[in-house]
Amino acid sequence: GTLAASLKKIRKTMTIEYIINEGFVIDGKKFRWGNDRISSREKLNSQHKEEDFFFENSLFFDGDKSFDLFQKRDIYRDINSEKNFFFLNYDKEENLESLEVYAGVKILINDTELIFKKDIKDYLNLLNSFGENYIETDEGNFLFKNLKITIASSKTKGGKGNGLSYFYAAKNIDHLINE
Question: What residues pair up with 47 in beta bridges, in sequence order?
Fold first, then answer.
C-alpha cells in the first residue's frame, strides 16, 4: 500500500471538547463564546464556506424590526483531511454564539465521549447517571438545560434509527426552552 493509504487507516476522528459556559476546543485551539468571526476562521485555517442571510419580516409587521430574521454561519466540511460536517454560528455583531455538529466528530464533555451513529439512548442514560436531566423537546430531540446542549437521533434529521446524528451547543439556550 501507499503512504496515503496507510495514513488514511491511522487517521483519527476529529474531537471537539465542549466546555460548558465557555465554548469548545478543536485541535488544541480554544474557541470562546463571543470570539469574533475572523479569529475563529483563522484558527481553522479559513476552511469554511460563509452562509449568511437576512429576511426583512418587519415589512409584514408595520416595520417592527423584532420580526426580522438573520443567520450568520460558517460551514466546515471535511476539514483537516477528515470526514466531518459542522457549523459555527454568529450573532449580528459576528461574535461566536453556537456550534452545530452533524457528522464525523467525536464530542467530549467532562471526559464523556459522544460518538456519532452510536445509540442516542446510551448517551441519554449516561448523562442522566451524572445528574444531567433532559427534556425531549421533539421526538428524538433532547435538550440538556444545565449543559446548554441539544442532541438528536438520525431519525429526527431525516435518517433512520436512533444513532446520534446532531449536537448543538450554545452560549445561551433560552430560545430552545418552552416556558
Answer: none
The answer to whether the beta carbons of residues 161 and 169 sit under 8 Å apart is: no
DSSP string, 27-92: TTEEEETT-BHHHHHHHTTT-EEEEEEEE-GGGGTTT-GGG-EEEEEEEEESGGGS--EEEEEE-T
| pLDDT at residue 9 is higher than 70 | no
Contact 156, 141 (CB under 8 A): yes
Are the beta carbons of 98 and 89 closer than 8 angstroms?
yes
Mean pLDDT for 74-86 is 87
pLDDT tier at 135, thresholds 50, 70, 90 = very high
Cα distances (Å, whole numbers) of residue 116 to 13, 42, 107, 128, 152: 10, 26, 9, 18, 10
Answer yes or no: are the C-beta atoms of 57 and 47 closer than 8 Å.
Answer: no
Residues 6+ apart with CB under 8 A from 47: 76, 79, 80
Model confidence at 64: pLDDT above 60 = yes
Q: What angle do CA 150, 101, 146 make, to 5 degrees?
A: 25
